[in-house]
């Protein structure tokens, strides 16, 4: 079997064909807000806060953290976000007595 190789631009076009018509707002009302943790950047220029606010509302107001950063500077909170995601995972799956832990990523 021969492997097909594509460049980054071709990959982007391939992915875009499957994602450009997906609007999260069309499916948001079908989600169980208990199973989500929404993390937003207060100064996001990629996904404006007004859009995040509407998505949060349409999702049924799941747990939400708004960080005082922009879209890309959110990386400064990498460990914090990972730990909050782990906390949410434990909450969803009713995992107790985990103790102190570090997210391994």
Describe this structure in words.
The chain has helices spanning 8-19, 24-27, 49-58, 78-92, and strands at residues 37-41, 63-67. With 105 residues, the chain is mainly alpha-helical. The protein has a domain at 24-92. It has a two-stranded parallel ribbon. Strand 1, helix 3 and strand 2 form a beta-alpha-beta unit. The longest helix is centred in the last third of the chain and has 15 residues, at 78-92. The relative contact order is 0.13.
Helix content: 25-40%
Walk across the major sheet and give the strand order: 1-2
The helix count comes to: 4
Secondary structure tally: strands: 2
Extract low-pLDDT stretches: none
What portion of residues belong to β-strands?
5-15%
Biggest β-sheet strands, sense, barrel: 2 strands, parallel
Distance between the termini: 34 Å
List keywords for this structure.
mainly alpha; globular; 105 residues; 10% strand; two-stranded parallel ribbon
């Amino acid at each position: 079997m021969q492997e097909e190789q594509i460049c980054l631009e071709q990959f982007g076009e391939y992915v875009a064909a499957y994602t450009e018509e997906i609007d999260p707002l069309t499916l948001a009302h079908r989600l169980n807000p208990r199973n989500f943790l929404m993390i937003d950047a207060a100064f996001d220029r990629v996904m404006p806060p007004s859009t995040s606010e509407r998505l949060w509302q349409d999702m049924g107001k799941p747990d939400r953290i708004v960080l005082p950063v922009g879209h890309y500077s959110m990386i400064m909170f990498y460990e914090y976000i990972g730990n909050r995601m782990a906390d949410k995972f434990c909450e969803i799956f009713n995992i107790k007595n985990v103790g102190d832990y570090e997210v391994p990523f």
